[in-house]
Amino acid sequence: MHNSGRLYTIACNFIQGLALVFTGILLLSGLLFTCYAQDMTSQEVLTVPDNPLISLPGMLILGGVFLGLGGLFAKSATRRKPLLLALVMVWILMCGGLLILFGRTAPAADAWSVYSAAEALATGDTSVIHPTDSYLSYYPQQVGLMAFWELLIRLWNLLHLDLQAYHFIKCLYVLLTCSIVYTQYRTVHLLWADDRIDCIYLLLAGCNLPLIMYSSFVYGETPSFAALSAGIYFLMKLLRSDDAAGRTPAHPAGDAVLCILLLTLSVLLRKNSLILLIAVLLVTVFEALNRRRYRLLLLCLIGAILSVSILPITRKAYELRAGNTLQDGVPAMSYFAMGMQESSRGNGWYNGYNFNTYQESDMDTRLTTQRSEQFIEERIAYFKAHPAYAMSFYFYKYLSQWADGTYASRQATLATLGERHPFFQKLYDGAYSQWYIGFCNIYQSVLYLGCFAFFFLRLWKRRATALYLYLGLIGAFGGFLFHMIWEANARYIFLYGLLLIPYAAAGLSGLGDRSRP
């Protein structure tokens, strides 16, 4: 075995062990705790201990339903699997349409600022590109999403309808939600070629209520993850095609180009997608070295260059168009500092520190960084002097993100222009909210159970594995580490939860194999 082969084996073994520990922690925390916001005004995240005697049976019953229905649809897969796929797509389209018509969610806060800038630019007003009097000089990383929305708004304006363009954007997002499910479904089949796993995945995706709720969230998550999931699918086609059988893909160049473009687009729409892109690059480099397929390294190099440069290029294009400049914006260090602070909503959640410090520093990025670094040093000293407090702080910061089965979907989509239908109003802050929280909590426990089962069974059976199979898990773990030190929010964890669904489907299917006589 050559040196790269030994390194590859070590990496696989390490990731297998890490995956088991990580998903085991997720499973325990999901069974023992529930985090949610009850008051939609304060949006304080409550941490409530669960009774395992109640949460465990609920998880097993729902998991059994997914497994049983998945097996039922897989029995006549040629006929029933396309039917299930169609049913899930129609379900998402129907629920998404009802949310648009009766939920009436509107962009707010940062989303509204980006939308307003895109709307102005679509009408030829370039005054939003300004070094001081511009939202973009605080958050220049939003130029990519703004560019995307400007294009959509320009297309919408061609119809000359007296209706806000964000309604059109929400309709598009419902379609993109369907594309997320479809590309993940195709990826699941590509990786395991198992009809029951395919069917369980579709059932899990269709019952993911936050996924449906977020289809009305006018921001960067949905289009970014749609591009990311499609990019990962084309990457898996490249990596899977010549894995064991020595096959070559039918259109390797086309798959490579689509992979690079889609992954770059995901970063353009949401800068935090760089976390997942790093996972993609790491896995692809290991696969290239292990297989001695050095052309894959070229794919990594091009992908890295484009993903790092796409936002600066877009920003420069807008500056040239407006004949003006933007500031460098709120520095990353201030987010790290804010992630170490208490907040009215939860530990490490947004409390205005980054924005306020930047503003008080006269929009001087370097001075803001210095002040943030000083605060971080003071906070670390306090944590060292009070280790019990530090452990409690990060424990509850972790739970507020990873033990919230709703992924803050009610808070994120709360803003509205116009009156909501009574049913949806009760879903946000009325009687139905408890049912929503309860189901999402049990669903999340099933998700974690399936993931843990998948990694446990692979280790227990000592199955040989390929590193690319763990790409989603590596991305999710990277997100876990990042948001333990960055600003916290369960909304940020939502996309990592989507990455875990394929593993949960395979794990539940594996448990079904173990339960057979």
Summarize the structure.
By secondary structure, this protein is mainly α. The chain has helices spanning 3-32, 52-75, 77-103, 109-122, 143-157, 165-192, 195-206, 209-213, 221-241, 252-269, 274-291, 295-322, 332-338, 353-360, 365-385, 387-402, 409-412, 422-429, 431-460, 471-485, 490-515, and strands at 33-37, 45-49.
User: What is the number of independent domains?
Assistant: 1
Strand percentage, roughly?
under 5%
Strand order of the largest sheet: 1-2
Low-confidence stretches: none
Shape type: globular
Q: For the terminal residues, how far apart are their CA atoms?
A: 40 Å
Helix and strand pattern: HEEHHHHHHHHHHHHHHHHHHHH
**What helical percentage do the residues reach?**
over 70%
Number of strands: 2
Keywords:
single chain; 517 residues; mainly alpha; two-stranded antiparallel ribbon
SSE layout and pairings?
Layout: H1 3-32, E1 33-37, E2 45-49, H2 52-75, H3 77-103, H4 109-122, H5 143-157, H6 165-192, H7 195-206, H8 209-213, H9 221-241, H10 252-269, H11 274-291, H12 295-322, H13 332-338, H14 353-360, H15 365-385, H16 387-402, H17 409-412, H18 422-429, H19 431-460, H20 471-485, H21 490-515
Antiparallel strand pairs: 1-2
